[in-house]
Write a structure and sequence with these properties.
Layout (H helix, E strand, L loop, with lengths): L1 H25 L23 H13 L5 E7 L2 E7 L3 H20 L10 H6 L5 E6 L3 E7 L3 H20 L1 H13 L28
Length: about 210
């Protein structure tokens, strides 16, 4: 009887998590009771620009099949090329990268489920970034002399690549992982949104 009760409780908890994510993702961004309603409420930190940035993320996830991305791991960081032949998607990519770059400079974290973003924001002064805008997207190179930051840069690149490959499915997977581990995730971090086979190594403490 006790085992049955535990199983039932687990099933209810799983269904509750799924319902919570579905409800959040189903709400229009930046609407409801205040500007932080809907998926924006899932952010670990919020500010006046959160709703606009979340709208960009939503547009990119909705059009993920129109995005092409390549990642090159460098000895001291990463080089990513993210582009789209669709002019509107390409513009959204450019706007997203520009906004995230400014956020990193300002230390205004924008994070839903990433393990790596807290590291990058915490150690942003150890990152050298160059951004190139192309006709169809952006080329980003980020390097560091700090091995922990290099690992976080490469880990985050994998997280973003999974979002480009799987779109909203990857987003939901990451949100479910975070919710399953509690508001602060594993060890005061945030659950990674990558599958077991591609998951970046867990990073202690605190990072686009």
């Amino acid at each position: 009887m006790q085992r049955s009760l535990k199983l039932s409780t687990g099933i209810v908890a799983t269904l509750a998590l799924g319902l919570a994510v579905a409800t959040a993702m189903g709400q229009p961004f930046g609407t409801g009771h205040g500007a932080m309603a809907g998926p924006t409420a899932m952010l670990t930190k919020q500010d006046a620009g959160s709703a606009a940035d979340m709208n960009l993320v939503h547009d990119l996830l909705f059009n993920y099949t129109r995005i092409k991305r390549t990642v090159t791991n460098l000895p001291d960081g990463i080089r990513t090329v993210t582009e789209s032949d669709d002019p509107q998607v390409a513009q959204a990519l450019k706007a997203h990268v520009a906004s995230m770059s400014q956020r990193l400079q300002d230390g205004r974290e924008f994070n839903i489920f990433s393990n790596t973003l807290p590291v990058l924001f915490d150690k942003r002064d150890r990152i050298v970034s160059t951004f190139e805008t192309t006709g169809t997207g952006t080329v980003v190179t980020q390097t560091s002399t700090d091995a922990k930051v290099v690992a976080a840069l490469q880990g985050h690149a994998r997280e973003v690549t999974e979002l480009v490959q799987d779109g909203m499915v990857a987003m939901r997977r990451g949100m479910m992982s975070r919710m399953a581990m509690g508001p602060r995730g594993a060890g005061a971090g945030i659950g990674a949104g990558v599958g077991p086979a591609n998951r970046a190594p867990a990073l202690p403490d605190h990072t686009h």
